[in-house]
């Protein structure tokens, strides 16, 4: 995806369906995470270090997958909002959080860019929320 994308649903039945689907996915995420946590708690570092590392890596990947998914806002955690895909960060925000950040960075850009140095190859912060 190379352009800002907004997924907005107006129909109340579809909103209920979307929210219910997100709840199902969230519950599956929590169950899997709790299963991994429970297994890692029963292991000792002395005899199961490799397994503990494997489980920690799996939990980290699971949390990251959830955090960047369209099922939740990566800032406020809302699971009931319309979403906007941020092309710079490659994650989804709810429309409210995206709007707040967009307004903030535009204002900062107008006041004078403070996160951008011409001598670096960094992307100006005004492009973080197009
Ligand atoms: Zn949000």
Kindly describe this structure.
- This protein has 130 residues and is mainly α.
- It has a domain at 5-92.
- It is 54% helix and 8% strand.
- It has helices spanning 12-41, 45-67, 95-111; strands at 5-7, 83-86, 91-94.
- A 3-stranded antiparallel beta sheet has the order 1-2-3.
- β2 and β3 (91-94) form a beta hairpin.
- α1 (12-41) runs antiparallel to α2.
- The radius of gyration is 19 Å and the shape is flat.
- Bound molecules: zinc ion.
- Zinc ion (ZN) binds next to β3 and α3.
- The site of zinc ion has 8 residues, from β3 and α3.
> How confident overall, as mean pLDDT?
90
Spatial order of strands in the largest sheet: 1-2-3
Rounded to an integer in angstroms, the radius of gyration calculated over CA atoms is: 19 Å
Number of helices: 3
Spell the H/E element sequence.
Answer: EHHEEH
Itemize the secondary structure elements and their pairings.
Elements: E1 5-7, H1 12-41, H2 45-67, E2 83-86, E3 91-94, H3 95-111
Antiparallel strand pairs: 1-2, 2-3
Helix pairs in contact: 1-2
This protein binds zinc ion (ZN).
